[in-house]
Amino acid sequence: MVYDVISLSAATSTENLQALEEVKDFCTTDLGRGGKQRWTYHRLSESVIDNELQRLSDARSSNSVDSVTFQPYSEYTYLNQDRYSVEEWDLHGGAWQFNAVYDGHCGHDTVNFVYKRLPSMIRMSLQALLSSSSDTVPSPELVSEALSNAIRHLDDSIRSDLFDFLPSDKLTSMSDAQLSDYIRRHKSEWDTISARCTQGATVILSLMDPLKRNLWIVNLGDSQAVLARKRSSEWSALILNSLHNGNNPTECQRIMREHPGEYQCVSDNRVVGYLAPTRAIGDTWLKVPAVYTRRVLGEYTPDWMSPPLVEEYTGRILTPPYVSDVPDVQHYVLDTTRANHESFLIICSDGLLDLYDNIDATLTAQDLADRWVNIIDLSLRKRKENEAPRNLAFDLLRDAIGGEDIELASRNITLEMDDKWIDDVTLLVQRF
Question: Model's pTM, two decimal places?
Answer without folding.
Answer: 0.92
